[in-house]
């Protein structure tokens, strides 16, 4: 389960399992490491993997990606849930970058096993939320590229029933190999040069160049 800090990943796990894992507030995540939560759903043994949020106040997105990639190197998944707050009135550039990074992490071959789950439907009126969902579905820099390759968009209303329905969606699927797993394990690539790592590195390099240019301009002004 991936997504930005405060999207509701841990709350979702609590809804499914009936546990009471600590939940952070919107600006600070309680999940600082990979956390596996095991439970039974009917006769099936299920493992939900809680991950630190992108946009965390204490970790960079590159650090979060490194933690996730390290865990994925030895794990085959049945599916991936990416959570997004429908209450967000706009999508910032860093968040759009993370959508692109997430797409590259998964690759396009197994996106039928990816669910984009929108949360916080109780925090905004339905008409506004429905309009935002349509924007997320149709935006070329949002989720449209993944949906075009058979990813699914689902709603989570914060209830245990809906959370369990979302988990059940994945229980009929086989395990898969993600693009980043293939690149790290089979192709022996280092994380920064994988397709997912390159998305984050490109933005970091551009930020660094802007900082250097700004520093040079300030130095000229001081002289």
UniProtKB/TrEMBL annotation:
Cross-referenced SUPFAM superfamilies: P-loop containing nucleoside triphosphate hydrolases
MF annotations from Gene Ontology: GTP binding; hydrolase activity
G domain residues: 1-85
Keyword vocabulary terms for this entry: Hydrolase
Protein name according to UniProt: P-loop containing nucleoside triphosphate hydrolase protein
Protein's organism: Rickenella mellea
Lineage of the species this protein comes from: Eukaryota, Fungi, Dikarya, Basidiomycota, Agaricomycotina
